[in-house]
Amino acid sequence: MKIDLHTHILPETWPDLHKRYGYGEWIRLEHHKPCCARMMRAEKFFREIEDDCWNPDRRVSDCDHHRVDVQVLSTVPVMFSYWARPEDTLDLSRMLNDHLVSVVARYPKRFIGLGTLPMQAPELAVRELERCMAIGLDGVEIGTHINDWNLDEEALEPFWAAAEELGAAIFIHPWDMMGQGRMPRHWLPWLVSMPAETSLAICSLAMGGVLERYPKLRICFAHGGGSFPATIGRIDHGFDVRPDLCQTRTQTPPSQLLNSIYIDSLVHDPGALRFIVEKMGVERIALGTDYPFPLGELQPGQLIESSAFSTLEKERMLSGTALEFLGRKRSDFETAASLAHTQGLSGKS
Q: Is residue 43 in some structural domain?
């Protein structure tokens, strides 16, 4: 079985948000030719997308082609809209979350949904998180920061408490990357800042004591944990030699909290995959591809399947870790075809 923990989806259409709210550079779609659309931020081009970003039938067809049993769906991070008035972000979040529920309801054996929240207003975020869990979503996707807040900001404590109490899976994805003004060329915000954003989020949750205060949280970070795994030695060393700066909220070194988080497998390099497995173990790593975007893994699961891990280790990364993170059982999604494939991998009959 393959469960792709990291995929993005949008509705095919939504209201004109600038007209609806009366301000701001909201994202809209221009369907300028069949099966293609331009994502526009006000009048500025943001990204070209195809119908695999909104058409569930196209997604199922792609999944069948690549033998992916289940996709975990979350919005495109540019839609987070934490910069907006909280009541407007809540309104947009409800639209996106209701759309997710409708897609999951259409293909309940193929899709799982993670909602989005108005994180700039934690009390509204908690309210919408409760609604997400009540209407059939398994958790939420949030950004690596909330405007000027890092994820250990005191104002976010009610959100973390609610997420733990509700058993919500929290997928953390970089957005609004740091230093973009210095990176006008070469797609550098996506190549340099995205990994740093994720490391910033992990360090904030670890050194801010959030992971210790809420030990039952289930949190997964995109893109193989960004630059965090490769720099854990430096981070731990700094934590040790500058306790006055790094140990203000916890005395537990970040490396000792690696078993408190999950990461996806999206590292694009066999050596990098071996490295994160060595650092964190297969129990903390789940298949993630960033479908349908070009910076993702274009052959889902190929990196794991082509590496020199045991069958059981591959099984764990391809589906077992995602099931644990989501609080689900294999039987929730297993079809006759996927069961036969799993038995073939493990040598069972």
A: no
